[in-house]
Specification:
CATH topology: TIM Barrel
Number of domains: 1
Largest sheet: 8 strands, parallel, barrel
Order of helices and strands: EHEHEHEHEHEHHEHEH
CATH superfamily: Divalent-metal-dependent TIM barrel enzymes
Strand order of the largest sheet: 1-2-3-4-5-6-7-8
Number of strands: 8
CATH architecture: Alpha-Beta Barrel
Shape: globular
Length: 228
C-alpha cells in the first residue's frame, strides 16, 4: 500500500507533504486550476512525488484534465458520476493510450461504480468514509468483498457516528488499524489517500500521518505479500 495525501496543487502544501516523507498525493482539481496547466505542472515538477488526480466535480474540463494528467504522469484519475453516457464515451477515448487508471468513486452507494466498471473497464475508487455512512458502520465480510475490487482508496479518520468527517487517518488510529488490516487482507496494493480538510493540511499533520502509517505497516502489514 502507498500512503498519499490529498490537497490542491499548491507549492507550500506539496512541500510539506514531501518534507514529511509522504511519497504520493492526490490533487483535488477545479476547472479554474486547469485553466493554467503550465503553472500547476511547474509546481508539481518541483517534487518527486507520485500523483493521482481528482477530476473537478462541478464541470466538464476533461480535455484539460487529460492534458494535465499526461503532463505530470499521473497514475490514477478519480471521477464522480456526474457525466452523461455520451460524455463518458468521450472521457474514455481521451485517456485511451495513456497508462492511467480511471476510477469512479462511490459517492452515494457502494454499487454506484459497478455499471461504469463493467462498461468501460474503469476501476473503483473506494471511499471508505462514504461506505461507512451508507452501511451505518463496518461490516468486515462485505467490506472485504468490495475492497478486493478496489483500484484506489480514500480513507479518513471518520468512523460511523463520530464527528471525524474528513480528518486525517491518524485521528482515528485504532479504527483505521482495523480498516488498513482489512485492506491488507484483501491484498490491496494501491494508493491509500488520507482525505482531510484544508485546516489539517500542515507539515505537523502530514508528519504524524506518515509516522502512524509507517508504524502500522511495520507491525501489521504482511511484507511477504503486497509491499509498499
Amino acid at each position: 500500500m502507498i500512503l498519499a495525501a490529498k490537497c490542491q496543487p499548491k507549492i507550500d502544501i506539496l512541500k510539506d507533504v514531501y518534507n514529511a516523507g509522504i511519497e504520493a498525493v492526490e490533487l483535488y482539481l477545479t476547472g479554474l486550476l486547469l485553466e493554467d496547466i503550465p503553472f500547476i505542472k511547474n509546481i508539481c515538477q518541483n517534487f518527486s512525488l507520485r500523483y493521482a488526480l481528482h477530476a473537478p466535480t462541478n464541470g466538464c474540463a476533461v480535455e484539460k484534465l487529460a492534458e494535465f494528467a499526461e503532463a505530470i504522469k499521473a497514475e490514477v484519475v478519480v471521477f464522480h458520476n456526474i457525466y452523461w453516457d455520451d460524455e463518458w464515451d468521450g472521457i474514455v477515448k481521451l485517456f485511451k493510450g495513456l497508462s492511467i487508471q480511471l476510477c469512479i468513486e462511490n459517492v452515494y452507494s457502494t454499487l454506484e461504480p459497478i455499471k461504469l466498471m463493467r462498461r468501460y473497464q474503469m476501476g473503483c475508487c473506494l471511499d471508505v468514509e462514504h461506505m461507512q455512512l451508507a452501511c451505518s458502520g463496518v461490516y468486515e465480510e462485505a467490506f472485504l468483498r468490495i475492497m478486493r475490487e478496489a483500484s484506489h482508496v480514500h480513507l479518513t479518520g471518520y468512523k460511523f457516528g463520530s464527528n471525524l468527517w474528513h480528518t486525517p487517518i491518524h485521528h482515528s488510529p485504532e479504527h483505521n488499524s482495523l480498516i488498513l488490516g482489512l485492506l491488507n487482507k484483501a491484498e490491496y496494493g494501491g494508493f491509500v489517500v488520507s482525505e482531510a480538510e484544508p485546516s489539517f493540511q500542515t507539515f505537523d499533520e502530514f508528519k504524524k500521518l506518515k509516522i502512524y502509517f509507517d508504524e502500522w505497516k511495520e507491525h501489521n502489514e504482511d511484507l511477504s505479500g503486497i509491499s509498499a
